[in-house]
Amino acid sequence: MVNGESMPISPAAPATTVLDFLRQWGFTGSKEGCAEGECGACSVLVARPGIATPTEWVAVNACLIPVAALDGQEIVTAEGLGTPKALHPVQYEMAVRGGSQCGYCTPGFICSMAAEYYRADRNEQLSIAMESVAANGVTARFDGAANGSAVGAADSVSAGSGGAHDDGSEHGPNGFDLHALSGNLCRCTGYRPIRDAAYALGDPAADDPLGQRREGAPPEPVPTVLERDGQTFARPATLAEALELLRARPDAVVVAGSTDWGVEVNIGGRRAEYVVAIDRLPELRGLRVEPDRIEIGAALTLTEIERSLRGTVPLLAELFPQFASRLIRNGATLGGNLGTGSPIGDAPPALLALGASLVLSGADGEREVALAEYFTGYRRSVLRPGELIRAIRIPRPLAPVTGFHKIAKRRFDDISSVAVAFALDIRDGVVRSARIGLGGVAATPIRAYETEAALIGLPWSRETVEAVARVLEGEGTPMSDHRASAEYRGAMLGQSLLKLFAQTHEEVSA
């Protein structure tokens, strides 16, 4: 369904993106600006299972998703929101407040803004964010203090915005989370008029069709097989079917949100003979918080995890706003981030610090592997042919002192030069246990075992931290590349520990 009308996917090729499909049918509001999910000009709304309502309108990058992945689903483009004679409230506010100039990026902004406009728990999340800022006021979290859904917004939107909400929450008086627009770039307006439009929005009218659609059941995932030119896209109905497919086709490319594979298709020109989509498998989409552990389904999107946990895991709550953009987090999954095996993925350092393990499923059964033992080399892991990551398990209780530091060229929506995650248990001023995860300083994400050993048993003091920071600087085997030199990466490791101490020593002492 596109803007309320049924449209055939065939004869699209398995690699055809939603963006190309839409433009071929004349929906040219969606644009290609970067083809890798960084500009947001292509964003559209997709109906997905909701958290605050049965169905939610979620903004995604149409340039990354294969159109076959939306078989049987519902899409709304900027053309479907309103008309020149009957503007949608989001379009109206953007127009009267000068939020559009050249117009190239405007339809993408409109769709991202509309997704937040229709989010039913906007004001509830605003209250959580305000409480978090009042309670913490710093990046690191101590004693499990809850983090808001978005503390700090993307530079592209919030830089220099000033105004009535400079408390760090980046929420408007209407509950609008400015992070909803991260990943949307504009070179004309300077962003203030766009922010003003977002903060001026009220609630959807009672007779708003898209607002009413939220109360109905979400579209069910449709088992799909699309074949053309020797290529196949398959969406199995169950995990068992997926595992049998992978046993028969161990060479298949497994995709969830396609935020990584979509870039390979667009920029690298890669094609796969067989693609298996697992993002809607119910067995991979559960989330359970139990007394001794938290289990997160590998195919839940980062946004779904963030909103469902509501700060239950402060280290993850700190990670999420720094992970790419909202548009990417609406599709990206922890399973995908771990499955790629990238040494600069943002999630692995945090999960290593949390002591996470992975549940790996194959046609012959399941096994559990500690994340610290999962990576075996550059983009290699212990995954056997035909296996999938089904879930991530985080043991409880959680360490009371945590922090996630991402060093990159931009504050947000950028690839890490270095990522450092801390999880410390400090009692009576002494470090009782420590887990530190590192990214960007070796061929794989790693634990900083020497630093952890050096910290345990010592007082949490400046003298300790300054001495142990030198140990942390020597962890890993960092390399020099276009993002950072090896020397810089090592220096940032040491500085990260000093930063954590500066953020937490007063609370620990209290």
How would you explain this protein's 3D organization?
Pfam families: CO_deh_flav_C (PF03450), FAD_binding_5 (PF00941), Fer2 (PF00111), Fer2_2 (PF01799). There is one protein chain. With 510 residues, the protein is of the alpha+beta class. Helix content is 29%, strand content 19%. The strands form five sheets. Strands 4-16-17-18-19 form a five-stranded antiparallel β-sheet. A five-stranded antiparallel β-sheet has the order 9-10-15-11-12. Strands 5-6-8-7 form a four-stranded mixed β-sheet, with helices on one face. A hairpin with a 6-residue loop joins strand 18 (430-439) and strand 19 (446-447). The longest helix has 24 residues, at 486-509. It is globular, with a radius of gyration of 23 Å.
Assembly type: single chain
Shape, please? globular
Task: Classify the beta-strand content into a percent band.
Answer: 15-25%
Q: Strands of the biggest beta sheet: in what spatial order?
A: 4-16-17-18-19
Q: Roughly what percent helix?
A: 25-40%
Q: Please count the beta strands (DSSP E, at least 2 residues each).
A: 19
Instruction: Give the uncertain stretches in residue-range form.
Output: 136-168
